[in-house]
Amino acid sequence: MTEVLLEAKAVSKRFGGVVALKNIDLVQHRGETLGMIGPNGSGKTTFVNLISGHTRLSSGSIAFDHVSLAGKNPSQVAKAGLTRTYQAVRVFGELTVRENVATALVDARVRLGAEAVDELADWLRISHRYEARAGGLTLMEQRQLELLMRLVQQPKLMMLDEPVGGLSSSEVRTMIGLLSELKSRCTVFVIEHTMKVIRELADKVVVLMAGEKLAEGSPTDILADQRVIDRYLGTADA
Question: Is residue 111 classed exposed, middle or buried when 0-12, 13-18 and 19+ CB atoms within 10 A define those classes?
């Protein structure tokens, strides 16, 4: 069996009296693309925030590449080889594309040379915008830049939080193509509401509902699961 890369055991998060996540168990193997779905407020982004060090666990444990992530901040998690993107794209708008990449290299596990960075930028079709100010890029270009900023850190696992949010239908198609190729460069964890992305990319899907795990299985099984249809998808043809 493929080696376990990410393992969450009984992960829970409370914000005061509000339980955002309750006893979530999850295993992701190296090379496996895991999709996470669920309605708004189900705890998906909270889960990624816990894994990436942006939020502290209330209880439970998280191990990445057989090492506990307890107490690690986002920079330490990134240096361990786990990085993430955001629902609202995060780039430094006043800096150029090249300067944004330079900031990301600070948290790289191993410093990439210029040639390797250029190869990634070419693959992501953003190298021709190197000297452009990031704030002036289109949303699609900013998402490509954000992927580049994460890839130069040479992650073992990249967690993507709604990577096609706000994109046009043609841009979604382009992004799915890029993410399909991304799977050959690192292990991928993706949160999405766009089921086309999940169907085409994920090997395994976890469904969250009100902070609890409702179901887990292949995309085919999940899309046919009556509990998921009734409580989230609303139709078997989603």
Answer: exposed
- Looking at residue 237, its pLDDT comes to 52
CB contact burial 155-186 (16+ within 10 A = b; e otherwise): bbbbbbbbbbbebeeebbeebbeebeebbeeb
Tell me, yes or no, whether 224 lies in a domain: yes
Q: Are strands 34-37 and 59-64 parallel, antiparallel or unpaired?
A: unpaired
Residue 206 lies in a domain: yes
pLDDT in tens, 217-234: 999 999 899 999 988 887
Domain of 197 in residue numbering reads as 1-72+155-166+183-238
Rounded distance, CA 217 to CA 195, Å? 15
DSSP 207-228: EEETTEEEEEE-HHHHHH-HHH
Strand partners for 6: 28, 64
| Closest listed residue to residue 57, CA positions, set 107, 9, 121 | 9
Check: pTM over 0.85? Answer yes or no: yes
The token pair at 236 is 């078997």
Q: Smallest Cα–Cα separation from 213: which of 187, 189, 232, 196?
A: 232
With cut-offs at 50, 70 and 90, classify the pLDDT of residue 174: very high
